[in-house]
Design brief:
The complex is a heterodimer of chains A (192) and B (184). Chain A is mainly α and 192 residues long. Helices cover 89% and strands 0% of the residues of chain A. Classes of the chains: A mainly alpha (192), B mainly alpha (184).
């Protein structure tokens, strides 16, 4: 009952209010226009969003590139440091090789120098031979030129005594023998 | 059933690019949408903006319409939602608007000599209806002014029939209290 009363009351109020203002005849056109505007606005928003994203990507890529560059610089610096160490090591090696070569050269020079030095024993032998020769020469001179027979015999005997193995000792022996023979011959002649 | 088939045909034609279909839909439904919006918003008289919003939403969403209900029911559902958001968004403005609107509505009521309700009574009824929360006002408008069945209203509001009956009952109770002198 109440429901019907309320319904009647509401319907009367609705009738009293009357119909709403008439809708424009161009409603469909207006709606299409608004739809187009909204579409354009959506498109603009999307383009703007895309532009923002692209811009952000650009910045990000720029900073990433910067970071990459920095990383590259660090890597290059590390490579340069490594190369420097390698170069130092190579230079040290070259230096060592050059030192070794220099030492070898010096050693060769010293060897050559050493080789150029005469054998001391030979030298001694030569000196001994020379001394024996001088003694024999003086003895010969005393015997043949100065007629100092006794001194000459002494000298020959000294040569035989001091240098018994030398050829001058042999010569001294022959000369002594010759002197003895002469003395014998002389004494024989005197006796005759 | 026939209405749904017609609607399907219309939607198919629209999807195939026939733009004139939308003109026909607007022409066939704009008056009913305007009346419903006018009632849901408390008879402000000027509802063209809301109607335009409703058809804009329909224009943008028509391709997705799956014909599970009639086109009219779908448009009514859109109208209910648009009226809700319209009231919500313009809550402050509506207060001013409603005062001005009250004057125009009153003037219209006074001008309508043949109406069976005087302006004072109309204003009381109007205030009582507007004072109802949306969840009560919508069922009342759809049931008593649009003369829709509960079977039609429930899916439009997205609630069960029981919930609808409860809301209607509570709305009646409120109106009965507010308009007791007029009802008895």
């Amino acid at each position: 009952m109440t429901e019907n009363k309320i319904k009647n009351l509401l319907q009367k109020a609705d009738q009293t209010a009357g119909a709403p203002a008439p809708i424009s005849a161009n409603l469909a056109v207006a709606v299409r226009r608004r739809a187009n505007r909204r579409h354009t606005a959506n498109l603009a928003v999307r383009i703007a969003a895309a532009a923002i994203v692209l811009f952000a990507l650009g910045i990000w890529s720029f900073s990433a590139k910067k970071t990459r560059d920095q990383q590259n610089i660090v890597a290059l610096q590390a490579q340069i440091e490594q190369l420097r160490v390698q170069t130092d090591a190579t230079l040290n090696l070259i230096r060592e090789v050059l030192d070794a070569e220099r030492k070898q050269r010096r050693l060769n020079e010293l060897r050559a120098e050493l080789a150029s030095i005469p054998d001391p024993m030979e030298e001694i032998r030569k000196q001994v031979d020379k001394t024996a020769f001088i003694l024999v020469y003086q003895a010969n001179r005393m015997y043949r030129e100065l007629d100092q027979k006794d001194s000459a015999i002494q000298a020959y005997n000294r040569v035989i005594e001091l240098f018994p193995q030398s050829r001058w000792a042999e010569e001294a022996r022959q000369t002594l023998s010759e002197i003895k023979n002469n003395q014998l011959n002389n004494s024989k002649g005197d006796l005759i | 059933m026939t209405e749904t088939l017609d609607d399907e045909l219309l939607v198919r034609q629209f999807n195939q690019g026939d733009d004139s279909v939308f003109d026909r839909i607007v022409e066939g439904n704009s008056a009913a949408i305007a009346v419903l919006a006018n009632r849901l918003l408390g008879w402000p008289g000027e509802v063209e903006d809301i109607v335009q919003d409703v058809f804009l939403a329909a224009f943008l969403g028509l391709k997705k319409f799956r014909c599970e209900c009639s086109l009219k029911t779908w448009l009514f559902t859109i109208t209910i939602n648009k009226c809700r958001s319209y009231r919500y968004k313009r809550m402050l403005y509506i207060r001013v608007f409603s005062q001005a609107d009250a004057k125009t509505s009153l003037a219209r009521a006074q001008a309508a000599n043949e109406t069976s309700m005087d302006s004072e009574v109309f204003e009381r009824v109007r205030r009582a209806v507007k004072a109802l929360p949306a969840k009560y006002r919508e069922p009342v408008v759809l049931r008593y002014l649009q003369d829709l069945s509960t079977n039609e209203i429930a899916p439009m509001l997205g609630i069960s029939k029981n919930a609808l009956n409860v809301r209607l009952s509570r709305a009646r109770e409120r109106l009965r209290q507010d308009l007791a002198e007029l009802i008895e």
